[in-house]
């Protein structure tokens, strides 16, 4: 379980990116983090993995502190936090397998990692993960030869190679088309459920969050202004988070996208594709 208590981040300018944020995420739950630009979503994720130093407050993972610890303890804890990035953050010239194995760098010595000599157990784990994300046949392909959806699947497998206790996901679908976005979100939800992983997903696509997230947290000006189920995310609540918008039109567009996907699938089945 991830526990965040009274987390505040104040920059030197005096601006508060986070203001007294408290949040608990139990095992297996995927939380969608929504809000306008500048609401503090990315800052929250970066405070959790300590890429940004909180001004005050406490964070614990599985009962162990992530705040108030030394550099050695922090390195050990970061091994337990899988990160999935908007722009994939793959090493383009390396193969898919080598990118997945890079998730084990925190567990092997410098020279073994430098020479890419990973233990057989790590290699077998990487193959299992590639099979799980549907990329077993792409293991030897260079990362720069993959589609956006395939790259994000590699990013998921790499994060899982760390054997994490928490997943932090930053805008995983921002560079993907709507159909691929839904496939990636479905995969993330399934994997977190299978492994009992708590996860926080910073997501800008509100309809996508409503479709897939088990729980949604809305941030505005560094404060939590909503914490509930997708069903509770009414137009009034969305307006409180984002301001005025034609939310009904947005939902209609999402339904049309899903209907188009279903029509495409039925046509492929009819043609025997």
TrEMBL record:
Query: What Enzyme Commission number(s) appear in the record?
Result: 3.6.3.28
Record-level Gene Ontology MF annotations: ABC-type phosphonate transporter activity; ATP binding; ATP hydrolysis activity
Which top EC class is named for this enzyme in its record?
Answer: hydrolase
Q: Domain ABC transporter: where?
A: 2-246
What keywords appear on the UniProt entry? Answer: ATP-binding, Cell membrane, Hydrolase, Membrane, Nucleotide-binding, Translocase, Transport
Gene3D superfamilies on file = P-loop containing nucleotide triphosphate hydrolases (3.40.50.300)
Which InterPro entries does the UniProt record give?
A: AAA+_ATPase, ABC_transporter-like_ATP-bd, ABC_transporter-like_CS, ABC_transpr_PhnC, MetN_ABC_transporter-like, P-loop_NTPase
**A GO term from the CC aspect:** membrane
- Pfam families linked to this entry: ABC_tran
Q: Which family does it belong to?
A: Belongs to the ABC transporter superfamily.
Q: What name does UniProt use for this protein?
A: Phosphonate ABC transporter ATP-binding protein
Gene transcribed to yield this protein: phnC
